[in-house]
Specification:
230 residues, 76% helix, 0% strand
Length: 230
């Protein structure tokens, strides 16, 4: 059991570092967006419609996306929950507001302007709606003290948030390898969130029983104290 546990910790650490690295690359690219440089990869060809409602959705998404990933990393960490429970509750509220009020609406609006066409637009629109739904359910189950269900909903939400990381890694690798078949864009835009979500759901089904460890951490020692997370 110990070697498997160590492998899981190493995998978790590497995944976290990858998420932070991608986040850092996004932040470092801010210099290409203020003012907008339409010669950069993402803004290429968007000049015709950028200066309108799209620019506000773009800038909101640009800031709320990295914030949601960093907060998500903290909130799913059980050690952080155990040692900083009040901060977990506070950051949980902040995450819910950030995702529901900023990330989801801006991402949904931007989906209508997807550079890869209708298939990508539909994929990103569904992704935005599912991201909002999962965090809303996470909020609801926390308020209802259904902490094991809360854990599962928030893991679903974080998995969907990580689709942005998977998307960048896949397209970045394709660029480096100069590999650009016609099926690449639709496969990656749909696969970046469907496949991780399917894997997570399979893991839930195989486990049968939800983790009681996380649920126990959420229940206060003082039973009269409110256990609400969000």
């Amino acid at each position: 059991m110990q070697p498997r546990w160590n492998q899981w910790r190493i995998l978790s650490l590497l995944t976290g570092l990858l998420i932070l690295k991608v986040n850092a690359s996004v932040v470092l690219n801010y210099r290409n967006y203020f003012p907008p440089n339409f010669q950069t990869d993402f803004l290429l060809g968007r000049e015709a419609y950028f200066f309108g409602s799209y620019q506000w959705a773009f800038w909101v998404h640009l800031f709320s996306g990295p914030v949601s990933l960093v907060l998500g990393l903290l909130l799913i960490n059980e050690k952080f929950l155990k040692n900083y429970r009040p901060w977990h509750r506070f950051l949980g509220r902040l995450q819910a507001i950030n995702v529901l009020a900023l990330l989801v609406p801006s991402g949904f609006w931007m989906s209508f302007y997807a550079a890869s066409g209708t298939q990508a637009a539909v994929s990103f629109a569904i992704l935005s709606l599912l991201t909002g739904t999962t965090i809303a359910m996470g909020w609801r189950t926390a308020v209802q003290r259904r902490f094991a269900d809360h854990r599962r909903w928030m893991l679903r939400n974080f998995t969907l948030l990580c689709s942005a990381v998977i998307l960048r890694v896949c397209f970045g690798a394709a660029t480096v390898l100069e590999y650009d078949p016609i099926w690449l864009d639709p496969t990656v835009t749909w696969g970046c969130w469907i496949m991780p979500l399917v894997i997570l759901e399979v893991a839930f089904r195989r486990r049968k029983q939800p983790s009681s460890k996380f649920a126990d951490l959420l229940i206060p020692t003082n039973r009269h104290q409110s256990p609400t997370l969000l």
